Structure formats: C-alpha cells, structure tokens
C-alpha cells in the first residue's frame, strides 16, 4: 500500500510536553499510529511505559481516547469495548497498545483468547525487549545475551516468537514493523484497519534507556536491527507469509550488515563474549531459515 | 401481566439480565455459577434476549471484557463465584475506581484448598473494601429483584459504582422456587436506558485510569465514600419505587423479622436467615423474645438502620458463614463495630464450606448465647464456633468461660 504523506492527517496525536524519555520509540510509534488511523482509533493501554508517557491528570499527552487497564487485561477489555461500540453503531477501530511484557508474558492468555475468538481489534505489541517502565527487567521478549537488571550476566534464553505464535491462531493479519520504518508501519496499520477480525502488529522499539544507547540513535538502531537481519519485516495475510521490501534482499546472508554493528552501539550487549555473539547469530539464522522454509512451501521462493 | 414461574436461583438472575436489557455478557464457567451463563446463552440463542456473549478464557478477562463493554456505553453483566472472584479481584478495584456501573452476580462458595464447591461467604465478603455495592439475597425472588434493582441503583448519577448481587451456592443457585416475573413494559418504565459518567468514543480524546497526582487519588477514594452514602438514599428511594411497580418493597436495607419487641436479635446475611426466622419463632415459644435482622446490603453498610434496630437490645447474635482468620467472623466485626459492642454480642461462625445448618441448629446456638448473656450479664464473644451440634470457644475468645 503506497502512502502519501500529504494525505495523512495533519493533526498531532502525541502532544508536546508528554512524559516520554528523550528518544522514546513508543512516542514515535504512537505518532505513526495517529497518522495511520486518525480519529477512528480508540486505544486500550495496559500498565507500561505508555501509561506514564500520557502524563499526569489533568494533562493528557496522547490526542486519542485512551482506556487504561490493568496489566493482564488489555485484549479482553478491548474485546468488550469493540463489541460495545459496534453494537452502538459507532465507526471506530479499537487498538491495544501494549508492551512486550503485557503481550508475551502477563497479557498472553487474554491475547491468545481474543485471537481465538476473532475479536475485531488491532493488537500492537510495542516491543522494547524488557520491562522498561519498572526499570529494565527481563521479559519473554528480551533477546539472548541482553543485560537487564534481572539478567546481570545476560539473558540465556531466546525471544518468544510472538508473531509466529499469533499467526498460528490463524488470524487474518499478523505483521512485524519497526519504528525505524514509519511508512512500512503506517501502511500495515492502514491495511490492518481495513480487515475485520483480529490483527496483530509487532512493533520493534529500541529503548535508549534500557538498551543503553544515545537517545539520538533510536531510529538508526531500529534500522540496524533490520539491516543486520536481527529483526525481519514481514506480514502474514490470511496465513500467507510475505517479506516486506526492507527485508526482501536480506534473504541472502551476504547482504546483511554484520550483527556486531547493531550490538556494539548498545550498552546492554557490552559484556558479550564471542560465543554469545555466535549464539545471537545462530538465532538470527534460525529465524531466517523458518521464513525461507515457509516461503518455499508456499511456492514463493 | 406478571407470571409465576418455578426456577432455580441462577435462572432467576439470568432472567433479570434479560428484563434489564443487558447487551453484553462476558463470563467464565465456575460451579455453582454456571447455570446463569448457560441460561443467558440459551435465551440469546432462542432470540429471547438481544445480547452478545463474550466467551472469555478466565474470570480476570470476564470482568475486563465486561468493564470494556460498559466503558463503551452498553449495559454489561458478568457472574462468578469463589476462585473466579478471587481471580478477578484486581479488576474489581479497577472497575469501581473508574466509577463504571457494571452488575455482577456472585454465587457464594468456599475458596480452597481443600476443594469445596459448597456455600460459604468468604468470597462475597472479600469484596467489601473494593468500592462495589454488595447485596445478598435470601431467596430466588430476591435474587431476581436485587439484580434488576442493582442496574437502576448503580446507574444512578448519585452512585455510579458497580454492584454485586450475592446468592448462596446450591441453596439458592440450584434450588427451584416460585419466582414472579414482571412484564417487560413495566421493567422498561422502572429501569430507564443506561446512564454512565463517560463513554469511550472515537474522536473524543480522553484518558481513563491514567496516572494522577496522589492528592487526587485520595480525593477520588473519598468521593467514592460519599457515593456510598448517597447509595443509601438511592437504595431506599428506588426500593420503595420497586414496591410500587412490582408489589415487593425494598426500601429497607435490613429485613427485620419480629425485631420491634425482641430482646435478642439474630443477625446475618443470605439464605440461612430464613432458618433463623423459624428458629426465632421456636425460641419465642420457649419464652425468649427473639427477632431476626437480615442484612440485605453489606455495602453500603446499613449503619444507621442497624443502630436504630439493635441498640438497646439485650443481645445480638451474629451468624457468620466465614471467618476472618486470626480475628473473628467478618460480619461480627462489621456489626459489633457499628453497635460499639453496646448490646451483648456473640459471634457464631457456622456452616462454613456448606456444613448443613438447620433451624434447629440456629435455635440451639442462639439459645446457648442468650443463656450466657442472661447468666453473665454483658458478654462480648467474637468467636463461639458452632459445629455439628457442639459449641467450641476459640481464639480470640477462648479465654472466655462459656460454661
């Protein structure tokens, strides 16, 4: 879907003076969400950074209606809200805006159930790869080797493959996205909003505070994750997998930038030994092999 | 025309949601609540009820979905019991603090371990501090009536708090009794379309439940306290109106049986208070002037009414179907604090986890309590455990000589 910037709403949905940290990927992502869906969006936000970014009552840092909710309940609250608005004949798109912990850990059960029921919502996982709001603790989406305040010597497990897990629910639309590729994310949001049923977008969101990099580098690091092949941009539409342009040519490993370029800019990977980097490289290979295998089975490769 | 139909307590609640024109129901099955949601699903499938069911994966999600639906502007309902209620505990606070009217049925049941599916009041009394209105039915008709009333009361702008209707597991939930069903037109007159303080609408930026300064948090809590006080007025007013529409008056928060000339009162909640009424008759035959004060409401606590009814009596015997472990029965604590322990007070935990209690049992321990008071003058016994025909003094009253 081609996006023309002139046709996007001029209205600002992330207000100046909000409580986000400098270089915050969530406020970047939320801005794109507003650009894509405009006034149609009604957002459900569980506990997490975005509960704080809104700022203190009576001020409000997001220009959309927000229903804040307890950590484990975003997909269920959104289910009820979407059904109520539909019954009342209101033209709206209910969106869950949840972090990696709220998605892959405590909110997983409710997410899986809402997907199984085919609720008409867009669920966005804003993945900054740890519990950043409570001070950088490990989550089910923290990558291998990463330092957090609860993995001082580096996490010893891989990321939970959330997009594949949600896709296995046979929902009509699952996509990965990155705050480093706004057009790609906006196009995916617009496509998701055009589909009825349960839609899932997994948004990669590098966090300067938790990942230990300079706040000016958020977009660059997000792009490096894609360019090194560590984060792959793709979508499942009705179960059919398609790689998106930023990741297309990276099927060929020689086209990918060395993973060290991505890792070396982040303090959370400073302690890595060569064997850790090998493990990370291995995980990347495994992810790509899975994608390639699926594309071959589909007859697209 | 109203019609008399034989039905189980759970079905009575389900029918009340139909008459209330509930639009969204989200629930997870748990014994002994299941019949409520099964019946609602059946009514929807037959086209008798215009509502949607969200078949959630847990009670936490059940209340979250109900809350989401209510925030979206429709009348929403859920029902649970025991472990289910414990599992949704966090959402109870969230719903009340958001001032969102929602109605929930709690079919009372013991909380494990060990597993026990029978009646107990631990679960419903666990909700006392959450900011929900809490009521408790004595019979199936009342379970129906309180459910309808609860929608009207919770959606009153002076209240705007969610509400729980309690009914005893199996004793009411699974027992068939005659229930008078009203006609829809009269219900529609009594219960106007839903009102709520705010509705989530696209294009209207607002944040619900976001971070607030501490001072505002405290002010909001005290505002809920004020709403509970308002709810006392609303309950009486709406309860009297209910009487005009349907012939059953609910203006009294305490259902009094032979209270006015009584020396002694038996106080408590739920279905076994029917047995207490029979016990009172029996004790009167023996020469003890006994009445029964059945609390229909636990929150708001009928503080003024209780004082009016019970102050000046020789003694109040509180039946508790649960225990605040390490202290006494929760109802005893509530009632004795309201009465400043001025009449002699005896707390009797009994029937916990479904242990059968008949009117003979009630007469037996009430007579024992009365004799204690008559022999010893003023007594204050938080825990006098009645179990299988025997009385056991236990902590914190074990030092009290009972014989």
Low-confidence spans of chain B? none
Q: Which structural class best describes the helix and strand composition of chain A?
A: alpha/beta
Order the strands across the largest sheet of chain B as they lie in space. 3-2-4-5-7-6-13
Spans of chain A with pLDDT under 50 lasting ≥5 residues? none
| Oligomerization | heterodimer
Features:
heterodimer, A: 301 residues, alpha/beta, eight-stranded mixed sheet, 12 helices, B: 403 residues, seven-stranded mixed sheet, six-stranded mixed sheet, 13 helices, 39% helix, globular
What's the quick description here?
The complex is a heterodimer of chains A (301) and B (403). Chain A has 301 residues and is an alpha/beta fold.
Describe the protein's architecture and organization.
Helices cover 38% and strands 14% of the residues of chain A. Chain A is built from 12 helices and 8 strands. Chain A has helices spanning 25-37, 49-53, 74-87, 100-105, 108-117, 162-167, 182-194, 208-211, 218-227, 245-248, 259-263, 274-298; strands at 41-46, 66-69, 93-99, 122-127, 173-178, 199-204, 234-237, 240-243. An 8-stranded mixed β-sheet of chain A has the order 2-1-3-4-6-5-7-8, with helices on both faces. Chain A is globular. The model of chain A has no long low-confidence stretch (mean pLDDT 96). In chain B, helix 10 (273-285) packs across helix 13. With 403 residues, chain B is an alpha/beta fold. Chain B is globular, with a radius of gyration of 21 Å. Chain B has a 7-stranded mixed β-sheet, with helices on both faces. In chain B, strands 10-12-11-14-15-16 form a 6-stranded mixed β-sheet, with helices on both faces. A two-stranded antiparallel sheet of chain B has the order 1-8. In chain B, a hairpin with a 2-residue loop joins strand 17 and strand 18 (390-393). Classes of the chains: A alpha/beta (301), B alpha/beta (403). The A-B interface holds A 39-42, 44, 51-52, 54-57, 60, 62-70, 72-73, 75-85, 87-88, 90-93, 109-110, 112-113, 116-117 and B 23-24, 26, 52, 54-58, 60-62, 64-74, 76, 90-91, 94, 200-213, 216. Strand 2 of chain A pairs parallel with strand 9 of chain B.
């Amino acid at each position: 879907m081609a996006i023309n910037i002139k046709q996007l709403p001029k209205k600002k949905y992330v207000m100046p003076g909000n409580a986000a940290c400098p270089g915050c990927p969530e406020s970047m992502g939320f801005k794109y969400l507003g650009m894509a869906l405009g006034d149609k969006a009604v957002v459900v936000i569980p506990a997490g950074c975005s509960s704080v970014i809104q700022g203190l009552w009576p001020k409000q840092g997001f220009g959309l209606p927000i229903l804040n909710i307890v950590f484990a309940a975003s997909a269920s609250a959104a289910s009820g809200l979407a059904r109520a608005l539909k019954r009342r004949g209101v033209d709206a798109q209910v969106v869950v805006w949840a972090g990696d912990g709220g998605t892959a850990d405590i909110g997983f059960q409710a997410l899986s159930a809402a997907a199984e029921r085919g609720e008409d919502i867009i669920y966005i996982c804003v993945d900054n790869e740890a519990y950043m709001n409570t001070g950088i603790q490990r989550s089910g989406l923290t990558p291998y080797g990463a330092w957090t305040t609860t993995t001082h010597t580096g996490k010893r497990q891989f990321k939970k493959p959330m997009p594949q897990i949600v896709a296995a629910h046979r929902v009509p639309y699952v996509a990965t996205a990155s705050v480093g590729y706004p057009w790609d994310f906006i196009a995916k949001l617009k496509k998701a909003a055009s589909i009825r049923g349960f839609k899932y977008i997994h948004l990669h969101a590098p966090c300067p505070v938790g990942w230990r990099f300079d706040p000016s580098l958020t977009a660059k690091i997000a792009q490096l994750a894609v360019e090194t092949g560590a984060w792959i941009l793709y979508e499942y539409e009705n179960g059919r997998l398609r790689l998106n342009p930023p990741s297309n040519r990276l099927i060929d490993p020689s086209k990918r930038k060395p993973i060290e370029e991505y890792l070396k800019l982040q303090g959370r990977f400073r302690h890595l030994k060569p064997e850790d980097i090998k493990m990370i490289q291995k995980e990347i290979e495994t992810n790509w092999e899975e994608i390639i295998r699926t594309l071959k089975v589909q007859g697209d490769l | 025309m109203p019609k008399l139909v034989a039905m189980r307590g759970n079905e009575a609640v389900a029918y009340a949601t139909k008459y209330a024109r509930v639009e969204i129901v989200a629930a997870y099955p748990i014994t002994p609540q299941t019949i409520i949601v099964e019946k609602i699903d059946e009514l929807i499938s037959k086209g008798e009820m215009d509502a949607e069911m969200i078949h959630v994966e847990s009670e936490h999600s059940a209340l979250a979905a109900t809350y989401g639906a209510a925030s979206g502007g429709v009348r929403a309902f859920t029902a649970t019991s025991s472990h289910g209620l414990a599992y949704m505990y966090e959402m109870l606070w969230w719903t009340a603090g958001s001032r969102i009217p929602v109605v929930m049925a709690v079919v009372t049941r013991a909380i494990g371990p060990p597993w026990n599916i029978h009646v107990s009041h631990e679960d419903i009394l666990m909700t006392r501090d959450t900011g929900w209105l809490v009521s408790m039915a004595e019979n199936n008709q009342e379970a129906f009536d309180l459910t309808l009333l609860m929608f009207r009361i919770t959606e009153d702008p002076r209240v705007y708090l969610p509400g729980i209707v309690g009914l005893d597991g199996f004793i009411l939930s699974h027992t068939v009794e005659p229930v008078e069903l009203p006609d829809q037109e009269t219900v529609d007159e009594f219960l106007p379309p839903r009102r709520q303080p705010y509705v989530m609408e696209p294009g209207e930026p607002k944040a619900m439940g976001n971070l607030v300064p501490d001072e505002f948090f405290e002010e909001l809590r005290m505002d809920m306290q004020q709403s509970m006080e308002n709810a006392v007025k609303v309950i009486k007013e709406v309860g009297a109106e209910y009487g005009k529409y349907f012939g059953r008056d609910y203006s009294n928060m305490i259902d009094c049986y032979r209270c006015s000339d009584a020396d002694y009162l038996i106080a408590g909640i739920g279905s076994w208070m029917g047995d207490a009424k029979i016990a009172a008759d029996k004790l009167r035959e023996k020469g003890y002037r006994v009445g029964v004060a059945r609390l229909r409401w636990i929150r708001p606590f009928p503080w003024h009414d209780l004082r009016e009814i019970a102050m000046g009596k020789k003694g109040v015997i509180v039946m508790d179907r649960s225990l605040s472990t390490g202290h006494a029965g929760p109802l005893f604590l509530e009632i004795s604090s309201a009465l400043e322990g001025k009449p002699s007070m005896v707390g009797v935990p009994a029937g916990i986890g479904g242990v059968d209690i008949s009117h003979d049992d009630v007469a037996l321990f009430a007579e024992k309590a009365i004799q204690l008071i008559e022999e010893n003058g003023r007594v204050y016994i938080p825990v006098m455990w009645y179990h299988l025909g025997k009385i056991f003094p236990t902590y914190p009253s074990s030092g009290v000589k009972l014989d």
